[in-house]
Design brief:
- Chain A has 9 helices and 5 strands.
- By secondary structure, chain A is an alpha/beta fold.
- Chain A has 2 domains: about 70 residues, Methionine synthase domain (Methyltransferase, Methionine Synthase (B12-binding Domains), Chain A, domain 1); about 130 residues, 3-Layer(aba) Sandwich (Rossmann fold).
- Chain A is globular, with a radius of gyration of 18 Å.
- By secondary structure, chain B is an alpha/beta fold.
- Chain B has one domain: TIM Barrel (Alpha-Beta Barrel).
- Helices cover about 50% and strands about 5% of the residues of chain B.
- In chain B, helix 5 packs across helix 10 and helix 10 packs parallel to helix 12.
- The radius of gyration of chain B is 20 Å and the shape is globular.
- The C terminus of chain B is likely disordered.
Chain lengths: ~210, ~400
């Protein structure tokens, strides 16, 4: 039987979600299980978005609700919890301070079970490389709205190459003015047109990496 | 057909009448103008007169355009919309591009304040919060600096008029969702539309009630001092395209329709700059008065679908993508412009423009290719010479 928390989350019924979470915490339920139900709800939200039933506004609201749920959980359970599906480093590239697209993608990836290191905005290439080295992430997400971000994205991909990391790290890019020609210019692996694309790329790449590792 | 003046050409395109060629109006601002002339961007933020001179020089380099659509950015940034703006020479390096920093300046309780006291009172109340976030004009100088900026814009408009270049009036009304979004942040605003729609509605109605008469009054105050009057206000719209149809129908379109109808009734031509992808919403624009608005698309909306839906109803402007102007070749730009003129220019009602602003790092030869193609390629002219449009 489907978890009612998952259903009310997917229906964006925030009041019911918060009530369920509170009640289940008070009943002593494992916070991980509560979070898992919300993640399942978030996955349903993504599916409804892909089906054209939901729009960006609903993705944003779901992200806001997810933040609200994690704020209710005991400390140590907020954010990255449960078995991670994989590690991802994400940020808005140097000289660009736009955060909306990045924040939306990061919240969708986290809700999908990924452990995301969010480096923030205006992130220089060296910081991305350091974070990839430190976390061992095999997926890197680069966000940027302006055309000046194209050069910064290319600089990150070039820096990955120079650091000998390119062959083991997949790179996705996204942002309002990005097109296929920008993908080619930067040398990244995939261009995401929306937050759900980012989740789909991550799922695909992790599955490929798992298969390659036997 | 006799050669038209830029003003006649624009008016004809907007009113869906025959034109001698498509109007060419790339959205060139002082950032691109300065960068393409090797001037650090901070200099045109500090010195608006210099910015205007470089803009004029850029237009001259291009052999002229049919409309000046963009002005510059000054030390007030977008404070009149309650937005924190990061500016070169203040928060950024001398030659970096200004950017908006979307922060939650507006708080939940401010909806009630706006509903009770109006938007202008909100901006006066909230400006100290922007100063705390780093806006460089001190609170006590906000009013006088705003007055200077307004006077500067009037002076620049005079200059464009002498040069024979139509322009737009920059102190116009805005749509509540758009205004609130930037001062509240997108995430918080969307949350409000779900969580507290009544508060949003009360503030939005009060805001529009104030904005419409004030905008019209300001417009006419300016118009009376000018030879031509001015074409329109530019009205930015981004957030609407991110809303679900349910939210759009409730919280966006009623305000947009009311605002546009009021402006059109007052003889003003709203120039709707549509950032992001408006393709799912194009049919709504059929509800606006025919031949009365410009729908300016930024490259993300399907402009060809827009033409198919709005042909014979509304003028479309756009949409050479920023990525093409930066990464493409002059030939690629020219080919894209020809495609636009062939398809979107068919039957008049088209203005050739950049998608959003010409990007700061666009290749100048690409901008020239846009302008030159627009001025020289016009396969539809024979139709007009043969007796007007079908």
């Amino acid at each position: 039987m489907s978890d009612p928390l998952k259903q009310v989350f997917a229906d964006l019924n925030e009041e019911a979600v918060l009530k369920f979470v509170q009640e289940r915490l008070e009943a002593g339920e494992d916070p991980q299980a509560i979070l898992a139900a919300c993640r399942d709800g978030m996955i349903l939200v993504g599916q409804r978005y892909e089906a054209g039933e939901y729009y960006v506004s609903e993705l944003i609201m779901a992200g806001e609700m997810f933040k609200g749920v994690t704020a209710l959980l005991p400390s140590g359970n907020a954010g990255e919890t449960g078995p991670s599906r994989g590690k991802i480093v994400f940020g808005t590239v140097e000289k660009d301070i736009h955060n909306i697209g990045k924040d939306l993608v990061v919240s969708m990836l986290r809700a999908a079970g990924y452990e995301v290191t969010d480096l923030g905005v205006d992130v220089p290439a060296a910081k991305f490389i350091a974070a990839v080295n430190e976390t061992g992430a095999r997926i890197l997400g680069l966000s940027g709205l302006l055309t000046i971000a194209f050069d910064s994205m290319k600089a990150v991909v070039d820096a990955l190459e120079a650091a000998g990391l390119r062959s083991r790290v997949k790179v996705m890019i996204g942002g309002g003015s990005l097109t296929e020609s920008v993908l080619k210019f930067t040398g990244a692996d995939a261009l995401g047109l929306d937050a759900q694309d980012a989740v789909n790329f991550a799922n695909q790449w992790i599955a490929e990496q798992d298969a390659a590792n036997g | 057909m006799d050669e038209m003046t830029p003003y006649e050409r624009l008016r004809a395109a907007i009113e869906l009448r025959p034109v001698d060629r498509v109007p060419v109006a790339p959205k060139i601002d002082t950032s691109y103008a300065a960068r393409s002339h090797g001037v650090p961007l901070a200099r045109v933020v500090r010195d608006a007169e210099l910015g205007q001179k470089i803009l004029e020089q850029t237009f001259a380099d291009l052999g002229g355009c049919d409309c000046a659509l963009q002005a510059g950015m000054n030390d007030l940034g977008l404070s009149t919309l309650g937005i924190v703006t990061r500016l070169p020479g203040y928060h950024l390096g001398e030659d970096e591009l200004w950017q908006l920093e979307e922060q939650e300046i507006m708080r939940v309780e401010d909806y009630d304040f706006i509903a009770q006291h109006s938007w202008i009172a909100y901006i006066e109340m909230v400006y100290p919060r922007l100063v705390e976030k780093g806006m460089p004009v001190p609170v006590e100088k906000f009013g006088s600096r705003l007055g200077e900026a307004f006077a500067r814009e009037m002076q620049d408009m005079d200059t464009w008029e002498v040069l024979g270049v139509p322009t737009l009036f920059g102190f116009g009304p805005f749509l509540p969702v758009e205004g609130f979004r930037f001062t509240r942040s997108l995430q918080a605003l969307i949350g409000d539309l779900f969580r507290r729609p009544d508060k949003f509605t009360a503030a939005a109605e009060a805001c529009l009630e104030e904005q419409i008469p004030l905008g019209i009054k300001n417009f006419y105050a300016v118009k009376e001092t000018k030879k031509w009057g001015y074409l329109s206000f530019q009205i930015g719209q981004t957030t609407g395209s991110l809303l679900s149809p349910m939210l759009f129908k409730k919280h966006y379109w009623p305000y947009e329709k009311k605002l546009i109808n009021a402006l059109v009734d007052a003889g003003i031509t709203p120039w709707l700059h549509c950032d992001s992808n408006w393709t799912p919403f194009l049919e709504y624009f059929l509800e606006l008065p025919r031949g009365s608005v410009v729908l300016d698309l930024d490259g993300l909306t399907d402009i060809f679908k827009a033409k198919a839906i709005l042909k014979g109803h509304s003028c479309i402007s756009g949409d050479v993508p920023a990525s093409l102007l930066k990464l493409g070749t002059p030939q690629e730009v020219s080919e894209y412009c020809k495609k636009l003129i062939d398809i979107v220019g068919d039957g008049s009602g088209f203005i050739l423009s950049s998608g959003c602003s010409v990007p700061v790092d666009a290749r100048p030869e690409n901008v020239k290719a846009l302008v030159d193609t627009g001025k020289t390629y016009f396969p539809h002219q024979r139709l007009f010479l043969g007796g007007g449009l079908a």
